[in-house]
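debug: dumping io for the single-chain case to check the tokenizer round-trip. Nothing else runs in this session.
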Amino acid sequence: MSYRALALGGDALTVGVVTAAFAVLPLLVAIQIGRAVDRGRGVAALRLGLGLSAAAVLLAALSPSVLVLSAASALLGLGQMLHTVACQSLIPMWSPEETLDSRFAHLTLGVSTGQLLGFPIAGAVATAAGVDAAGHAVTTPALLVLAALSAVAIPLAYTFAARSNEHVSRAEHAERRQTATQILGTRGMKPAIYSSLAVLTGMDLVMAYLPVLGQEIGLSIGTVTALLTARTVTSVASRALMPWLLRHVARRWLLVSATGVSALAILALPMTSNVPVLTLAMLVAGFFWGIGQPLTMTWVTQVADANNRSAALSVRLAGNRLGQVLVPLAAGSLAAALGVGSIFVGCGLVLLSSATTTYNATRPDVRPGAAETSSA
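debug: decoded output
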């Protein structure tokens, strides 16, 4: 979608606007989605999210203008929010607490595997399609292929049923629900959400602006695709290794390293055009980002009230989306003024600040539940 924005006459700021559009609708409805899932509508939200996602990618493939592309990005964001809240909420609903780390790791492993397949497929199709007369990548074939692959997932959501068909009325749920302010006031919630925001925003900025950086320093679409795939490969590896890591490394240090070590890798990106060095940076960032997302899901689930877990996960995702609205817009403005490299410097600094807050929040004397020295 970044390449399509550029082909439609956009620049770095336009890419920021399209990326921010992805977060606008989800930000407005995240809590409502969480409330619905808490009332037993998780499977319905999952199915609707898949359908909207496939439709959004198809709209992006056919978009004749940046405005339509932005609308497609917003629709994709809504579909992804529905699907993500449902997936993340059904796991704690259907799982014993001691299995949360591994099952969240399996969920995010599935996400990373999809990216691992999706990036090379999209890159290969885009490379085969070539460039237009103005030298911009031809993106319609790649987006059509991805829309078709997304559509294949829709019937899979009808092959399983919820373990419980219990639905809770709005009135009954209202008696025990917490407001977003109350959820955020739960000890440990804010640093958990900030850690998740920092990682997800970093991932989005890399996906959105690595093509811009690559075009600036002369990297081909194939090279940029390979770099993005390298990040995904090590995310898959770290999520597959999560049970082993939790047995040998304290959860606290895994959480801190997820943002602290990845920050150093991201700060290195604008400092070189050497492909092996860029590849190493992406491999390191991917490994530690792969650790961060499932562990923050468990962190939020464990500190949240049992009747409001889906709402708490929605608040976490809303925080992620808020970052996805504000940070890309700021990044696009920063890139227009200081160059695209400044985006990666800013991203690295955000990750470092998150590592600091996570370190402080998980001290044994601050919040014992988050400072475990072994797996849950």
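debug: round-trip ok. Confidence is low (pLDDT under 50) at residues 367-376.
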